[in-house]
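Workshop exercise sheet. Pairs work together: one partner reads the sequence aloud, the other fills in the structure field after running the prediction. Swap roles for the next sheet.
Pair: D.N. / O.F.
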Amino acid sequence: MQTGTRQYLTYCLNVHPGEKWSENFEAIRTKALNVRDRVCPDAHFGLGLRLSNAAALTLSYPVQLHAFRDFLAANRLYAFTINGFPYGAFHQSCVKESVYQPDWRTPERVAYTCRLADILAALLPEGMEGSISTVPGSYKAWIRGEADIEAMARNLDTVARHLAQLRERTGRFIHLGLEPEPDCFLETTGECIDFFERYLLDRSPVIRDHVGVCVDTCHLALQFEDPVASLHRLVQSGIRVSKIQLSAALSLVSEQAVPDQLTPFCDAVYLHQVRVRDGAGRVQAWPDLPDALAAGAESGSEWRVHFHVPLDFAAQGMLRSTATLLPPSFFAAVHQAGVAHLEIETYTFDVLPEALRARGVEASIAAEYAWVLSRLIG
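Structure field:
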């Protein structure tokens, strides 16, 4: 939905399980339309697609693409952004580190991303920008040296050139956003700026327009970064902010070495990276929540967990969320920075503790829209 001049808000459809296009379409036909009717029953409603490689291959067929485009028009829907991060299965199986495969060293990631861009170009309304979010290079432990970094930069340049050619051929302007995430090749704002300045910005003239950063506010919070300061640093460095994913991490300040309130948030599907900051400002890191709980931390430390909780999550005991880092002044800074695409992303709904799922996914998403809109409007 349009929230201001050239600014659009959506939610990411990765919250709905589905790896095949038929499953994705069914979620749009039922759940997304339900959310539309709750949020803006009389207005056009934007979609944030999530397409696996298998789904993208199916939707690439002209008959499928034309049928979907007709469906969008008939139902006051439009698509303007795609989550191109998970290539394969993303629900109901052990995802963990495999979500980063194939990474940006591989031709498979290039082909998949170009395919998504071709689909989006066919769906984008005239005059509207498109965005695709993607893996932040790779999982950090997999990168062995300069050759790997150069391979990622070359492949990103290849996609940038494809996006530029697509713009010239179709008139549709699409940009790619690398999404920094804990324990990945790009984790922090500083690492993004360093990578862009050393390997990307001067590589070709099309990079600045077509490759940038997707800022996920949950991931920023894990690094104890200030979201407004991060935005300013990216803009001042000449790096496009392609999209902002509005999300919140779990947080708590615990007097226990092992805060048992976090135990229900352990699951076998996703990585839930943890950062713990003690009273002296030192930060410890763990790759997953069970590892952090096994190790424990100093009493009085602040825990932040990469578990996307609904933006309107209410405090429960010591449990809080980092949504408090997103006041109206944050949204004012987003507007000032000229970021056009905002996407609510709470993909972990199905692995939330049962009490947090009681209202149902559509009602939960609608409540997140209300939370965001109240801050956008002031």
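Discussion prompt: Residues 98 and 207 are 28 Å apart (CA to CA). What would you look at next?
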